[in-house]
Design a protein that fits this description.
With 156 residues, the chain is an alpha+beta fold. The chain has helices at residues 11-22, 24-37, 89-103, 120-128; strands at residues 2-5, 43-53, 56-66, 72-79, 108-114, 132-137, 147-153. Strand 2 and strand 3 (56-66) form a beta hairpin. Bound molecules: coenzyme A.
Length: 156
């Protein structure tokens, strides 16, 4: 088992994972985002990792911040393929992301999600990983669901 940085040849695989767990619309958005992320100069930092077991990707996710953001990170696409869920892989990758954010001396990690039923696992997962619900914006997403923001504060 190892955690390594994203390689360009992982992108197809990760977009397929997002298609599997979140659907085609999110897969399209992720493909665009991950391509943009290859153009590093718009970011203050951008890091994306995969957790591999026997050369198979069992979790993927990262974080980023734009040039003029304060000392915070935004959680990027974070996904565990359906067949590997509830085996602790998400938790392991999150632990790595949190330790990287601490090394960068960031104050908090911000995660954006939804109050839709489809995102229940994400909300539970974030709370289990010491994120706290910080804000809700009603009728935010195109389907009328609310945006729910979670933060995990990091000691400096
Ligand atoms: C959310 C997600 C990343 C969790 O990954 P995972 O590897 O299955 O999570 P873990 O096995 O590390 O679970 C850690 C804890 O999170 C909570 N959790 C995870 N999935 C859950 C679910 N479906 N329902 C309720 N709680 C859940 C549990 O407390 C779990 O601990 P437990 O298994 O001991 O009860 C995964 O379900 C996923 O990819 N979902 C779709 C994509 C998504 O919503 N991404 C946004 C994530 S912020």
């Amino acid at each position: 088992m190892r955690i390594r940085k994203l390689r360009e040849d992982d992108i197809g695989n990760i977009v397929a994972m997002i298609h599997d767990v979140m659907g085609p619309d999110d897969a399209k958005k992720a493909l665009q985002d991950i391509r943009i992320s290859l153009d590093k100069h718009i970011y203050k930092f951008e890091e994306f990792y995969v957790l591999e077991v026997d050369s198979e990707i069992v979790a993927a996710g990262g974080f980023w911040s734009l040039k003029y953001d304060p000392d915070i990170a935004r959680l990027d696409w974070f996904v565990v393929p359906r067949k590997h869920q509830r085996r602790g892989f998400g938790r392991m990758l999150m632990k790595h992301i949190v330790s990287r954010a601490k090394m960068l001396k960031l104050r908090l990690i911000l995660a954006e999600t939804s109050d839709g039923q489809q995102y229940k696992a994400a909300r539970e997962f974030l709370m289990k990983n010491s994120f706290k619900k910080a804000a809700v914006i009603k009728n935010y997403w195109n389907d009328g669901s609310s945006a729910v923001y979670f933060i995990r504060r990091l000691k400096k």
